[in-house]
Amino acid sequence: MKNHSPLSQIYLDANATTPVLPQAAEAALNSMRVLFGNPSSSHITGLKAKDVMETTRNNAKKVIGADDGKVIFTSGATEGIQTAIISALVEAKKRLNIDKQNEPSKKYSLLYGATEHKAVPESLKHWNEILGINAELKAIPVDRLGHLDCQFIAAEAPNALMICTMAVNNETGVYQDLGKLEQIIRTANNDIFWMVDCVQALGKTPLKLAQTTIDYAPFSGHKLYAPKGIGFVYIRQSAPFTSIIAGGGQESGLRSGTENLPGMAAINVIFEMLLNQQHSEFADINTLRGYQTQLMDTLKSAFPDVVFNHSIENSVPTTINFAIAGFSSKEIMDLFDAANIRVSSGSACSSKVTRSFVLDAMGLPAWQSESAIRMSFGPAMTQDQVNAACSRIQSAAKALTHSCMILDTGEIDEKQPVNGLLQLRSGSNCTWLYADQQSKQAFIIDPLPELNDRLDTLLQCQQLELVAIIDTHGHADHQSGRTFLADKHLPTQQTNLLGWPQDCQTHSSPNSPKHSPKDTNSVDDVQLQYIKIGQQWLVNVPTPGHTADSMSLLLCQPFTDINQIKHQCQFAFCGDTILMGSLGRTNFASSSASDMFSSLKRLHSLIGSNNLICASHDYNNEFTTHLSAECGRNPLLRNTLNGQLHVTEFERLKAELDSHLCDQNGSEIMCGALTDDQLNGQSIIEYNHQSLNAALQQENVTLIDIREPHEYALQHTDDSNENVPLTRLVQFIQQQQDQKQHKWVLVCRSGSRSFIAAQAMKRLGFDNVAHLKGGYALSS
């Protein structure tokens, strides 16, 4: 299987790492083939190697403006940070032992910028504890432009042992005024040790470290076209130093271990380019600023709702941090990746984090932090590459119209039609949209305000008539988006407080069996309200318990008897009554565990064991469920439905389950308690590309590409596979209920989405479902 893509890679994630320039790679290779000697050896081969090392050191000093002071080669910035912090804190501890004799109660601190790379505060915390200094770590606040708070520094520096700042921020490209900082710091405390992280400054802004009182400055080679594993740290002539690697005494006894000569040879090529601009592949600052402007203008043209998260006036020209309203950072990353554009959501060291602590510290709105994208390039960027990137960005935006995520003037038949159920999410909250293409009608269940614009765009793009917008209950953990959508699409519709239309119809089943009120396995109200959507009915079943107003909405084919519902039902929108792995909490003021007991039995009698349940929350990426799957892992539900529990025992056990809930100020309100024994993952068959190719040739295997339609449109395989995006996975599961033994192999970009989708299907009885480990990313 091949991922068919004629597009070459456009790499715009240079702040994470850069490719090695061919000249640098050649220098490294030459040092391994020819100048391979040990710099500590006294023979000619060793002397030649030592000359390479010292030439590189001298060039490093010239590049950073360090005529005096030490330059020690390291494995990278993290080692340089450790070297600086240990050297400063070892000396600080000596001073503390003296100071305690005069001021035993004096409190000391360690200061760092709130937007520092995590390597800095984590290292300060580590060595502060190891060395037993026990100073208080304090983050220096920043303003909305990312500038450090100078008043805070002036107030805190007199009692601080060390202050750590950065020259250029790795996420936003914001640079600090080092001259201004120096004046504030040294006025407040001339003896404080000062480290400046210069990793992102190299080659992007002038540095004259010897003209400052900066004590330590770490650098990393792989951020500027040198190989990984080579870096260096500047140490001011008068700054204390403690070796963190002892041994054979290399680097004049400052850093033991055989020197990384290939890395030095490679990074020296970079230094020479920086020192000789006329014979360099590096563009000057004005050219780089022009590239930045062109990329930003393209983003504004392609995505009119784009917002830039930093000011151009105080940031280097090689970094653009932006957010697009209505899109998460992962959605844009996946979109750009499908267009073969490499960007990131922030620091590569925290790529799994869903929001940016840097933007949070700057006080930007939460949505910008959660949607942040970093686009970064190096000084070797060319005009042709920028032009290609801009063209590709426009194509990526155009692809979004294919899945109706943005509007354009294209014809409706150019879009992928939405026919059936669509699951949209914001965090763990779910909104459900059902569209019937034949009648062009649609309804929305549990609309989220964060998704209002996307839902509105989808309705317009697909030219759908909205029939109803309904909340399954009054939500305690978030606001509903229903009012916004109703005012625009259903301004005259009369509804109850949850959006259920007053002009609904009522079904009375004449064939329903008589039953005693105590027979809670039966439906205790044979009159059910419903509305029509195309040729189907959306049936309202009161299911109080989680809240007094909770209801479940069943999408069914028309029926004449309520006992037929379980055979006619496609989806049951149960709100928070039944959650994947739990039951909705019943400790709100309007909750009732006894009512939930009756509601669970009512639902079971109506929808049976295997009809799909669509909840209002998905806390564990399980998409959907049914009562059979839930009973298999939830004994409280199982024993309720099989009649083993009386209502009073249910109330007791339900209170015990709810005791696992922990509501904290500022955190998400959980609508149901999840316990580890109810969230066991499924064992999934995993293919690599070789084994999958063999299976495709020998077995009846169907490939399912689960990327979103815009990703699929930009880049899809040459295999005859089907596109079933995660937003439509529940619809696919419902359609394939009779194909559970078929061999399905799910594929996505990296293997992460295909894995969770395969787990969800396996839990619902698709025993032969598998996924491609590593996804398309490893296919070429």
Kindly report the average pLDDT value: 89
Q: Termini separation (Å)?
A: 10 Å
Count of DSSP strands? 29
Proportion in helices: 25-40%
Total count of helical runs of at least 4 residues: 23
Largest sheet: 6 strands, mixed
Describe the structure.
This protein is of the alpha/beta class and 780 residues long. Helices cover 33% and strands 18% of the residues. The chain is built from 23 helices and 29 strands. The strands form 8 sheets. It has a 6-stranded mixed beta sheet with strand order 17-18-19-20-21-24. Strands 25-29-28-26-27 form a 5-stranded parallel beta sheet. A 4-stranded parallel beta sheet has the order 4-3-5-6, with helices on both faces. Strand 26, helix 21 and strand 27 form a beta-alpha-beta unit. Helix 1 runs antiparallel to helix 7 (261-275). The relative contact order is 0.08. Mean pLDDT is 89; it is low at 409-413 and 511-525.
What is the topological layout?
Layout: E1 10-11, H1 22-33, H2 44-64, E2 70-74, H3 77-102, E3 109-113, H4 119-130, E4 136-140, H5 150-156, E5 160-166, H6 178-188, E6 193-197, E7 216-220, E8 231-235, H7 261-275, H8 285-302, E9 306-308, E10 319-324, H9 329-338, E11 341-342, H10 357-361, H11 366-370, E12 373-376, H12 383-402, E13 420-426, E14 429-436, E15 441-445, H13 452-462, E16 465-470, H14 482-489, E17 505-508, E18 527-533, E19 536-542, E20 551-556, H15 565-568, E21 569-575, E22 578-579, E23 582-583, H16 593-607, E24 612-615, H17 627-633, H18 635-641, H19 647-658, E25 685-687, H20 689-698, E26 701-705, H21 709-714, E27 722-723, H22 729-735, E28 743-747, H23 752-763, E29 770-772
Parallel strand pairs: 1-11, 3-4, 3-5, 5-6, 15-16, 21-24, 25-29, 26-27, 26-28, 28-29
Antiparallel strand pairs: 2-8, 7-8, 9-10, 10-12, 13-14, 14-15, 17-18, 18-19, 19-20, 20-21, 22-23
Helix pairs in contact: 1-7, 2-7, 3-4, 5-6, 8-12, 16-19, 17-18
